[in-house]
Amino acid sequence: MKTEAGPGRSGRYAALDALRGLALVWMTLYHLGFDLNHFGYWHQDFYRDPRWTVQRTLILSLFLLCAGMGQAVAQAHGVTWRRFGKRWAQIALCALLVTAGSLAMFPRSFIYFGVLHGMALMWLVGRATLGWRRWLWLAGGVALLLPWGGAWLLGGPWASLAGAFDGRGLNWLGFITHKPITEDYVPLFPWMGVFWWGVASGQWLLAHRPAWLARPLASGGRALAFLGRHSLTYYMLHQPVMIGALMLVGLVFKA
Fold it and tell me: Over the stretch 156-194, which tens digit does the pLDDT of each residue have?
């Protein structure tokens, strides 16, 4: 049986792509449930039910870990700032398209700083801090704790500043006392901590266990790897396709 055995000419690792593909499949199932609820075919509380809120946290964490590991791989293969900038521009443009699309569908809770917005910022910070190496573990831990410390300060000693940090101008930092009304919210902190841990994990694996990333994949893994190699395109298309299909179903049943 044919297998993929690690980084090819593009410098990609099939195992990492497969892990990203797994996150995409999980995300798709989550979004399908959300869409079914939105159109009234299935009634779930995606905003408060732990069965869904915990899944969202796990899916996002897996995505950001993969993104951080991808930056470690890019560093190892000497990806230039020019090539990095081209990919970053694609992410930033897609983030703007998500904002425009969500504004049309959810005008009162549109996405102004969701996963792609957050990832674009994390890519820049992550690229600038690749040289921290083992200190990224500590930086990630601090980043994960920062919002709680910020919330404590804004709820007490610095309460007069709470309004500013809760507004859209600064709430992308994550130092909030009230969660904003938006369909997707991925602030810099605490999520930069997950991204940094992804970078640190990738650097450690490449230095000490490269075979784990270069391991052969069976057919199912190769399918996930293919999906993971086209993650941005898939991310941008999966929701419009599913929403369009459910709208079509609604029209058929009403006819």
Answer: 887 887 888 899 999 999 999 889 999 999 999 999 999
Cβ-contact 68, 75 below 8 angstroms: no
Nearest to 42 by CA among 52, 50, 31, 33: 33
Contact assessment for residue 105 and residue 31, using Cβ atoms and an 8 Å cutoff: no
Omega before 190 within 30 of 0, i.e. cis: yes
Write out 165-209 in H/E/C secondary structure. HHCCCCHHHCCCCCCCCCCCECCHHHHHHHHHHHHHHHHHHHHHC
Tokens of 131: 């040289």
Q: Is the dihedral of CA 180, 109, 92, 62 positive or negative?
A: positive
- The pTM of this model reads 0.92
* Total residue count of the chain as it appears in this document: 255
SS percent in the chain: helix, strand, coil, step 5: 75, 0, 25
Residues 19 and 231 sit within 8 Å (Cβ to Cβ): no
Contacts (Cβ under 8 Å, ≥6 apart) of 153: 175
Structure tokens at 180: 């904003």
Residue 185 pairs in a beta bridge with 113
Give the rounded distance of the alpha carbon of 107 from its chain centre: 23
Residue pair 32/249 in contact (Cβ under 8 Å)? The answer is: no
Handedness of CA 168, 170, 173, 178 (dihedral sign): negative
The count of C-alpha atoms lying within 13 angstroms of the C-alpha of 104, restricted to the half-sphere facing its C-beta, is 6
